[in-house]
TrEMBL record:
Residues 77-217 form the Lipocalin/cytosolic fatty-acid binding domain. This is Lipocalin/cytosolic fatty-acid binding domain-containing protein. SUPFAM superfamilies: Lipocalins. It comes from the Eukaryota. The gene is 107367815. One of its GO terms (cellular component) is cytoplasm. Coiled coil: none annotated. It comes from Tetranychus urticae (Two-spotted spider mite). Keywords: Disulfide bond, Signal. The lineage of its organism: Eukaryota, Metazoa, Ecdysozoa, Arthropoda, Chelicerata. Residues 1-19 form the signal peptide.
Length: 226
């Protein structure tokens, strides 16, 4: 019964994640093909053991200070997600071609636009959040996903601005810390040598290579919703 409850819960989460913000109007657009596709995606719970590898006893590592010439403004623009931790594979099942765009809003605060293609609806789905850059550590920013949630701290571990960026996040809950990471590229693929170097850095932060999932970037180019 517990396994059944988990699958039902996960199925509901996947459905909601792929249908916001217009959940109920989009439900009427489902075709039998889309419903069959959704059913076929449920076996992605096989990623669950790998997802657990990002759980660690104890607190989160402290972000390191960036190089003296680090400037978040050089990080602005479009990035493709090439890999992510498997924990997000469970929540993002049925989504592909994730893109992240960093920009400034009218108040010159950081704006984070996360766009994916929903396999269920075959349409872009976007989420736009405001973020605050740490005034003492410019490579650290925080975001809140809902009014009831607490801020999550993100750390730009490494970037050359033009080709790759490595983002790390850690959230402490009781005696556990949940560690997640995103490998980003200005293009949809990264050179193997760059990728291996970033994976090595993640290992030192308690994120093993076996916890990473390659992102599906098989879509034709699309423009994120601004």
């Amino acid at each position: 019964m517990k396994n059944l409850a988990f699958v039902l819960y996960l199925s509901s989460a996947i459905l909601v994640a792929n249908c916001f913000p217009d959940l109920f109007s989009d439900l009427t657009r489902f075709t039998q093909t889309e419903i069959d596709l959704w059913k076929s995606l449920i076996p992605n719970v096989k990623a669950f053991p790998d997802a657990l590898k990002v759980l660690s006893l104890g607190g989160c590592p402290q972000p390191e200070n960036p190089p003296s010439d680090f400037d978040f403004r050089d990080l602005l623009g479009l990035w493709y997600e090439t890999e992510r931790t498997a924990l997000f594979e469970l929540l993002e099942t049925g989504q592909k071609c994730p893109q992240i765009t960093f920009s400034n809003d009218e108040n010159n605060d950081l704006k984070v636009n996360m766009t994916v293609i929903s396999s269920l609806l075959n349409t872009p789905v976007t989420s736009i959040k405001s973020a605050k850059i740490n005034s003492n550590q410019p490579n650290v920013f925080s975001m809140r996903y809902s009014l009831l949630a607490s801020d999550i701290q993100y750390w730009v571990v490494d970037t050359d601005y033009d080709n790759y960026a490595l983002i790390f996040a850690c959230k402490q809950s009781l005696f556990l810390s949940i560690r997640n990471a995103w490998i980003l590229g200005r293009k949809a693929t990264l050179d193997a040598s760059i990728r291996d170097n970033l994976v090595s850095k993640l290992s030192k932060l308690g994120v093993p290579e076996t916890s990473l999932i390659k992102s599906d970037q098989s879509c034709s180019t699309f423009v994120p919703i601004q």
